[in-house]
């Protein structure tokens, strides 16, 4: 497991963010019994999340496509209609796989004021994927997101009420899966596990596939085949997805100049960085930053 994974902290301000292929609403309420911290929608063909952990629980629901998560030394394949849980303090990461479109709902929550329900979530074992066979969980996610986006009177209270229903339904689904003896995790091939660790340890470095092959003692063709069979994406495409996601983060969350970001990302010139970024996002780095800032708003909690 990766030892240097950062903590993705609980939100400290209310923020609505709508950027290309993603919507996220962070809601750090101060009301009694509040549980919802953030809810979002990611719709990126090459979505990925780097190794990290939370001081809260997180649910991810696959709306479309397929992907995978690596959590607590277990590897999980997920597909449309699957829900995945990560618990407090667990280092995890994942990505979309395959060539089809991908869409995912994600939701962070805490249960400090509902200890009985919190204990049930803590007691969930390593079977972290459950199927939403009836579509009930998706409908609940849809209603929460719709309520937040509508900004009607008491919409946040309604979203909190819907969240409790969702969390209880999720617990019932996990309990049912355990009773039926279903297993959702597999053992990751050691070479793939090591390759992922090397790729994620230092996203900013220019990874060389031949060096990765040497590190895991496999030929290039063997590692490529094993990687794509396991994750549904080639090593080269995966590396590019890591780069694009990290570049977007720096452009969105820092005030560093594009030149500074290009240097940090290992590009020799700002021109090469801009061409690389635009080739995959259809926007230049400067255009992306301008768009993000125009679509990100901080809101007054008392008015929602």
Walkthrough of the structure:
This protein is an alpha+beta fold. The chain contains 10 helices and 12 strands. The chain has helices at 115-122, 136-150, 155-179, 190-201, 209-216, 220-231, 235-253, 258-264, 270-281, 285-295; strands at residues 15-19, 22-26, 36-42, 48-52, 57-64, 66-71, 74-79, 82-86, 92-97, 103-109, 129-131, 296-298. The strands form 2 sheets. It has an 8-stranded antiparallel beta sheet with strand order 11-8-5-10-3-2-1-12. A 4-stranded antiparallel beta sheet has the order 4-9-6-7. Helix 2 packs antiparallel against helix 3 (155-179), helix 7 (235-253) packs across helix 10 (285-295) and helix 8 crosses helix 9. The longest helix is centred in the middle third of the chain and has 25 residues, at 155-179. It is globular and about 55 Å long. Mean pLDDT is 82; it is low at 29-33 and 298-304.
- Classification by helices and strands: alpha+beta
Number of strands: 12
Number of helices: 10
State the low-pLDDT regions, or none: 29-33, 298-304
**Main beta-sheet annotation:** 8 strands, antiparallel
What's this entry about, in short?
With 304 residues, the protein is an alpha+beta fold. The protein contains ten helices and twelve strands.
